[in-house]
Task: inverse folding
C-alpha cells in the first residue's frame, strides 16, 4: 500500500472518529439540555409553589384545607424543604393560609405564631397550650380628628384610635392610641394628654407606650359606645372626612363580613366579640395542625 493510500485511510478513519465524537457530543448536549430544562422547570415549579404559601387569600377557606389536609401537608412539606435548602436550616418559615399568617421557627417548631389579616389579631399555639388575642376596631362612620381641652392642656388635629382586645382566657381590654394628625396644632403633646387623662380617670392606665392608655376587665354586657358621638372626657370631634370616611368604613365592614361570615353591625356589646375570638382561635388551631404535620414530614 502506498503512502498516499495509507494517509487517505488514516484521514478517513479520523473523519469517522470525529463524526462519532460529534454525534456523542450532540447526544450528550441534548441529554444535558433536557436535564437542565427539566431542572429549570422543576425549580420554577417549586418557586411558584413557595410563592403560593406567601399569599393564600381569603378565597382559600381553612375548612376546605382541613378537608384536604393530606394534600396541603404534602404540598407545604415540599415547600418547607425547598425553602430550607435555599434560606438555611434555622430560617423561620412564614406562610399564609386563608386569613391566617403563620410562622414556624425551626428552633421550636411545636410553637407556632399566628397573625390575622386585620393586623389586630394574633395567637400562639404550642401543642395543647394556646393564647389567642382577637382585635376589633369598630366601624366609625367617618375619619375623625379630635381636639383636647382640659386642665390647661390644649391640642387640635389628634388621631384617637380604639382597639378592643378579647383573649381566649376571657379578658376584655380597650386600648386607645393617641397621635398627632396631619394638621396637628397645640402646645400639648399626645404623651402629656395621655398622662393628664389617666390621672383624672383611674379606670384607665398608661399602656405599653406613653401614647396609649388602656381600660381593663370590662364587663361583657357593657355596650360599646361610639367615639364619634360619645367622645371621652376632654376630647371633642374637631374634623370629619365624610367622603373618605364613609368609603373606609364600608370597606372595613365588607372585609369583616367576608372574613367572619357575619354582619359586623351585629356587635353591640363587648361580649358580642367573644364568639369571633373563639372562631379565630379555631382557625389558628386548624392551620397549626397542618403546619406542624408538614414540618415534621419535611424533615424525613
Result:
Amino acid at each position: 500500500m502506498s503512502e498516499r493510500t495509507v494517509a487517505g485511510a488514516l484521514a478517513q478513519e479520523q473523519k469517522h472518529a470525529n463524526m462519532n465524537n460529534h454525534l456523542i457530543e450532540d447526544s450528550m448536549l441534548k441529554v444535558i439540555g433536557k436535564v437542565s430544562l427539566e431542572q429549570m422547570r422543576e425549580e420554577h415549579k417549586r418557586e411558584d409553589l413557595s410563592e403560593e404559601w406567601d399569599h393564600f387569600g381569603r378565597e382559600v377557606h381553612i375548612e376546605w384545607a382541613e378537608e384536604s389536609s393530606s394534600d396541603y401537608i404534602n404540598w407545604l412539606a415540599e415547600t418547607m424543604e425547598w425553602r430550607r435548602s435555599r434560606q438555611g436550616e434555622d430560617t423561620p418559615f412564614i406562610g399564609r393560609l386563608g386569613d391566617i399568617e403563620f410562622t414556624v421557627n425551626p428552633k421550636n417548631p411545636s410553637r407556632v405564631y399566628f397573625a390575622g389579616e386585620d393586623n389586630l389579631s394574633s395567637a400562639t399555639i404550642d401543642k395543647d397550650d394556646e393564647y389567642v388575642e382577637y382585635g376589633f376596631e369598630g366601624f366609625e362612620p367617618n375619619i375623625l380628628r379630635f381636639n383636647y381641652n382640659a386642665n390647661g392642656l390644649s391640642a387640635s388635629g389628634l388621631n384617637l384610635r380604639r382597639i378592643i382586645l378579647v383573649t381566649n382566657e376571657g379578658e376584655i381590654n380597650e386600648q386607645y392610641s393617641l397621635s398627632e394628625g396631619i394638621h396637628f396644632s397645640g402646645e400639648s403633646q399626645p404623651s402629656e394628654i395621655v398622662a393628664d387623662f389617666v390621672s383624672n380617670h383611674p379606670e384607665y392606665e398608661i399602656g405599653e407606650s406613653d401614647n396609649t392608655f388602656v381600660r381593663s376587665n370590662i364587663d361583657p354586657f357593657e355596650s360599646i359606645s361610639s367615639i364619634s358621638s360619645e367622645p371621652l372626657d376632654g376630647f371633642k370631634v374637631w374634623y370629619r372626612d365624610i367622603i373618605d370616611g364613609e368609603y373606609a368604613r364600608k370597606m372595613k365592614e365588607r372585609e369583616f363580613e367576608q372574613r367572619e361570615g357575619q354582619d359586623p353591625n351585629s356587635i353591640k356589646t363587648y361580649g358580642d366579640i367573644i364568639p369571633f375570638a373563639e372562631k379565630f382561635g379555631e382557625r389558628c388551631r386548624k392551620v397549626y395542625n397542618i403546619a406542624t404535620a408538614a414540618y415534621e414530614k419535611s424533615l424525613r
Remarks:
- Helices lie at 3-52, 62-67, 69-87, 190-200, 242-260, 274-298.
- Residues 145 and 239 are 5 Å apart (CA to CA).
- The first helix runs from residue 3 to 52.
- The two ends are 69 Å apart (CA to CA).
